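Operator note (shift B, R.M.): manual run for O-acyltransferase requested after the automated queue skipped it. Running by hand, logging everything below so the morning shift can see what happened. Input copied straight from the record, untouched. If output looks odd, do not overwrite the archive copy; leave it for review.
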Amino acid sequence: MDPPETLTSSTDDNNNNLRRRRGGGGGGGTELDSSSVEASSSSDDVTSDVRNDESKVDRKEENEEKKETTPLKYVYRASAPAHRRNKESPLSSAAIFNQSHAGLLNLCIVVLIAVNSRLIIENLMKYGLLIGSGFWRSSTSVRDWPLLMCCLSLPIFPLAAFLVEKLAQKNYMTEYVVVTLHIIITTASILYPVLVILRCDAAFLSGVTLMMFACIVWMKLVSYAHTNYDMRQLARSADEGENSEINYSYDVNIKSLAYFMVAPTLCYQLSYPRSASIRKGWLARQLIKLVIFTGLMGFIIEQYINPIVRSSQHPLKGDLLYGIERVLKLSVPNLYVWLCMFYCLFHIWLNILAEILRFGDREFYKDWWNAKTIDEYWRLWNMPVHKWMVRHIYFPCLRNGLPKGVAVLISFFISAVFHELCIAVPCRLFKFWAFLGIMFQIPLAILTNFLQNKFKSSNLGNMTFWCFFCIVGQPMCVLLYYHDVMNRNGSSS
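Run finished. Output pasted below as returned.
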């Protein structure tokens, strides 16, 4: 180890070498001084700034050189203070959210996988594989050809809406006639699948799929008609001299409508942000994920949810403690299926569709898992529906003079009606459990808002959301609909 004198001399030599390299020799430094004297006052300021920057770089490089040449025992001396300022423990309430917890999240994932793997193995050893071959090969959904034909004929309604808008653009119809025809078209687009499902004894999965497609078509047609109506009003106001400095281009194009009907959005506009290209490798990986998580959902449903539901009693009849035990036992596999459904639908499938169509806006959801109130959850959970509600229901109600509370009530009412249609129609049973479940979100939103305002620094609102929405609400709806359908089938037979 070199003595301090050797260390000092080596550092001075390094500093001299650095100066010679930057100055390009002694002559270079003289030329720089003479040029700075001959410069104007403004250039002096610039030169001084440059010199300050160079001096900072010099000090930084000198420090680096010192670190490289200084022995370790001269860097940290025993007399140097080890405690310089006040600091909090990483898990204290004042510092817990100022750092990453990725390691703890990875630990939770590993523990979750280990615990559930043990439960899966124990279930298979006790009951065996409960998935029949019919689940994978010969499902009754394949034989529901009337529902398939109904689904394939749904594009008739967008075509009819396009013809109405084309005639309205050429001023062949009055605005009253246009609105009336759109009401008829949108109403028929939702009643037609309902009648087909009720007339045919179709499987539940086929009925749910058809009703979801019908609801999507209905919402897209409403957006198409409402947006074109608004563009006509803006174009007429521009023609009459109002806001003449703004160009409102209004065109009815079959290509824009066709793209809108298959795009992963519910809000119509003439053009959308587009991605540069289609990533084929990324697309293949997403398709593999879709198959894996769909199979995982089927396994959980057949292996866990169906046996629990079949062996349970009606949750509103019989022993209260038994009903609570059944709901809590069903809540965990139901939560897994719901999370897999969210991942498959909102993340994988919508991104696959957007990638194929080069649809640029991929914000199909936000961080709803951090929602502290129910209304915050509904604003983050399903962004296509949320944007549609805000654009075509909520703000039109406000512009027409309705109070904010009434606009929120109307939005929840429309959502409750379509939730009921998507479940009750395939079950052919109208007990309004889904409708009441959605409308119950209003007092629950008031409760979570109260908790969040009262306990601002806590996650009580988030825990209340998870408890009521996932642990209690969804399993209760599953049990209610299952037993009501079974009772209806038993009475009919």
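Quick read of the result: Residues 1-50, 135-139 have pLDDT under 50 and may be disordered. Residues 38 and 270 are 62 Å apart (CA to CA).
Leaving this for review. - R.M.
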